[in-house]
Amino acid sequence: xxxxxxxxxxxxxxxxxxxxxxxxxxxxxxxxxxxxxxxxxxxxxxxxxxxxxxxxxxxxxxxxxxxxxxxxxxxxxxxxxxxxxxxxxxxxxxxxxxxxxxxxxxxxxxxxxxxxxxxxxxxxxxxxxxxxxxxxxxxxxxxxxxxxxxxxxxxxxxxxxxxxxxxxxxxxxxxxxxxxxxxxxxxxxxxxxxxxxxxxxxxxxxxxxxxxxxxxxxxxxxxxxxxxxxxxxxxxxxxxxxxxxxxxxxxxxxxxxxxxxxxxxxxxxxxxxxxxxxxxxxxxxxxxxxxxxxxxxxxxxxxxxxxxxxxxxxxxxxxxxxxxxxxxxxxxxxxxxxxxxxxxxxxxxxxxxxxxxxxxxxxxxxxxxxxxxxxxxxxxxxxxxxxxxxxxxxxxxxxxxxxxxxxxxxxxxxxxxxxxxxxxxxxxxxxxxxxxxxxxxxxxxxxxxxxxxxxxxxxxxxxxxxxxxxxxxxxxxxxxxxxxxxxxxxxxxxxxxxxxxxxxxxxxxxxxxxxxxxxxxxxxxxxxxxxxxxxxxxxxxxxxxxxxxxxxxxxxxxxxxxxxxxxxxxxxxxxxxxxxxxxxxxxxxxxxxxxxxxxxxxxxxxxxxxxxxxxxxxxxxxxxxxxxxxxxxxxxxxxxxxxxxxxxxxxxxxxxxxxxxxxxxxxxx
Length: 669
Description:
The protein is α/β, with parallel strands linked by helices. The protein is built from 19 helices and 25 strands.
């Protein structure tokens, strides 16, 4: 990339605009203070003057502090300091004033998604502590300097999708040590994909650009859609379920037919973006050795073209045939709809679902078979066909559940959780229980959005929370992350409030959560905890629940073979000790016939260390002499919640009351 392509990241102002900035600064500070001396509220007000459509943040007012009770819109605060700016879907434009926001010393996240910003990318290098940048769905353009992200070692997420960036992908992205998510799709990047040095880059998307050349080996295991862009995959998916529904072929034959076409399709890789890319998981690069069939297909461009046309023609003929059969059999299909959902349906990843006919407003106790049921009226509705064709990636895959991140609408991310071992109840009981879950609304409980019932497996759909789980922050690679005592106390208080809410709203459940552990607590932008995978016990097959759920590892189940109203309190105690010590509970990952003995021993080890006067607290938590007094109070709460004797163990009410009394410090303020 030549030097002529480097637009200045901060344009020198004209004399007119220079005078305007001076006057603006005087109006804010009253004394011509230099930029480096701005307070946080002054810095934000200066930043506001560089924007268009400022009315969208009209409550940014110097009469109130940004982190006061009347918090400024889109400002994320932590411990009275500005942690992030989340200014999304506001129609904002103008300039992102890096001069101003560089005066926010604790700034960690910036999100300007779905606005009208344009021009070159801002010079984010002046914000070296930044962890996440979200600029998707704007009008940014031009080449990104190769060193645009040099030195930004704290960056974890960079989202630049759906803009108009050109030129090569900057090589400075490849050496960011803890980068976990990179979205460059929907731009006009050219050249080759650089070789990323990160050992694990689980979330990456480069689709719909103008890239070419071989895909680096480290990325060859990813989904082809993350490189190619929009394809006719949806037609193949429809071929699969239409084959099963309308031709009434046995599922194994139908699946084999579908896979044959899918393999042929991906070997040819008919794609709308990055047509010059090659290598796994796309078509082989010229000169690569491979199987005889693939080698023959790539020997001649004319031969490939003929094969592509044949495949497309076959798809058209198949689609026309399906349409005819569909019209003839629609009446029969409607009559048999009650039994239809247990016979099979649409395809989501490797999940089979029945096609949707309409979009219900909410879940009904008598929910219709084959429908995607929404339990919230405040969300934009979609049907199964839209879910099928949405951009998706696998987050987790296991024997019990699989999770997929899905973007049905631009900028709106959801998580689809597929449960396989959930046939304990029938359709009506399932929907009755889901209806209760759907009514739950609490700042510390992740709300259910929609669900889908099929006899063999179920889908639960939630909002996507992109700051990871509590477990990942406690035990993962969190270099330079502030995860101190005040933040951990805030998280524990939020967890306790969410759990108490589940107790109050689901009184008929002996264990209203049942699956409480650090990996089932998500953290949002401001590190507010959200409980997930709650209230599943009535739905999960008993044997699988015993193997998987934390409640069945409690001492009362190990010794008495039963669960009690205090079992979830025991899990809360385990979680408190994990947060305070930074130690991972020894058998949370164990399955099979493992009881709770290891966890009880784990708690007793911490008790013994504490009684010996050893410092059991996680060194990364920090804390002064005064805060350690409060930390010890929370430690005692953890012990009270983890007591083996159910009669001695605290109730949820007592636990929450004690937790709420704990402060960040016992020092008089």
